[in-house]
Structure formats: C-alpha cells, structure tokens
Design goal:
alpha+beta, 12-stranded mixed sheet, 28% strand
Length: 260
Amino acid sequence: MGFYYPSLISLSLLLLFYIIGTVILVRIWRRRPDDQYRAVKMAPFFLLLYLAPISEELWIAWNFGQLCRKDAGIFVNKTVKVDGFYDSTMRSAYEITKEGRYLFVEQPTEDRKGIERVRLASNEERARALAWYAEENPGKERPKDRSIFYPINDKETLAVLPNGVDAWLVTRLERPTARYHYRRPDTNASLGHKLTKFERVVTDSQTGELLGRETKYGREAPWLHIGLGRPILQCPAPGESPLEKHGSVFNLALIPYRNP
C-alpha cells in the first residue's frame, strides 16, 4: 500500500467526523432496544460512516502500491559504447557535453520546431567566435550578461558563454542523426484516478531495441488531505533505487567512448 503523507489537520477532522457520526448512530441504535435485527440493520450505516471518507485513499494507495511493486525503478537490458545520442526529454546537451564524456548530444531546438547537434567547440573555434565579435563591435567589451552567437553558415553557429571560456558548435538538423535515443514514450501518462506514470527509455532507433528504462509512478493526494501543499508522491522515492546514484538511465546504457 502506498499511503499519502499524513496531515494532522485531516486526521483531526476525520476523527471529529467519526466521533459525531458514531454518537448519532449509537443514539439511533438505542432507540430500538426491542428490535432483534437492529445489528443487521445498523451495520451498513456504521461501515458507510467509517469507510466512505477514506475509500478514495484506500483505492489509490492499493493501486499505487501494486504499480510500484510491478516495475518501478531503473532497468538496463544492454550497454553500448557511443560518441553521442539524441535526447528528446529536455534541452540538456550543453550541460552533458560540457562534462567532456560524450562528443555530441542532439536535442530539440528551443522552439521545438527542429533538431540541433551540440558539441564542445575547440579552442580555435572559440577564438574565431570571439574575434568575429570584436570585429563586428569595435571598441566594445565582450558582454557580461549574454552569450555570443557567431553564425558560421545557415546551419552552424558557435555559441560562447559570457565567461568567454565555455563554447559549443551548434548544428541545425532536419531530423536526429544519432542512432541511440533517450526519450519519453508517454509524457506523464494517466493510469486512472490520481495515478500517473513517468517513464524514460533508451532505444536503438535502427532496430527498435530497448536498452534501458526508468519508470516512476506518481499519486496525488486524496480529497480529505488538508495541508500546506499537495505534492505528487512518487515511487521509487529519491534515494530508494540503488542505480539512482548513476543519474539518468542513459548514463548506464550509453557508455561514452572516452572519459575526461
């Protein structure tokens, strides 16, 4: 069972409801001392009193627990060595390639209308972009609050951060060219009343083979929960999965050819 976080306010109101309801039903019970079937007649009302307020929570908690036991967690079926991959889950190419492990990462463009390949720029390329900016803006210092974008051609752009050190070559593509894809099959798929599935997979775009999968399930608060917030409760919870220390599942399935 996957019960939601307890709330002192909710528990207090529920207890008060039970006390008042019980007092009312007991008084009705006592008005029929000669009715030999009063226990049978009153039993459904007592069950309704005690179960109705928590029935939603019992249903959600039971189903949530079943889902978590079924296939929640990180699973790796196969590992491959790669230079890079396509990440459609978020625009993380700059951060990932900065580590120097993957040569490139492809991702959706900022407007989500295209694809771009991102790789670290060489020192020569970075110097070329800085020289271009200085030539285009004579006498001006390099901006401290925004990046420099040097358009090499219609498809290639050099991006240099304000620190003047970190730089990337960004190439616009019509479609992903990387063989291996890191993606979400279904974005926050609903599985029923207040139950959600979060999944990310690593696949081989040529064969359709599933290399790795990271599955989480989420549940919402029941109607009777009263608190400062109603956050989504997930499984596995942070720190529960033994493979979580490696980060996202692509770190386990897609092994870079080189390490920094």
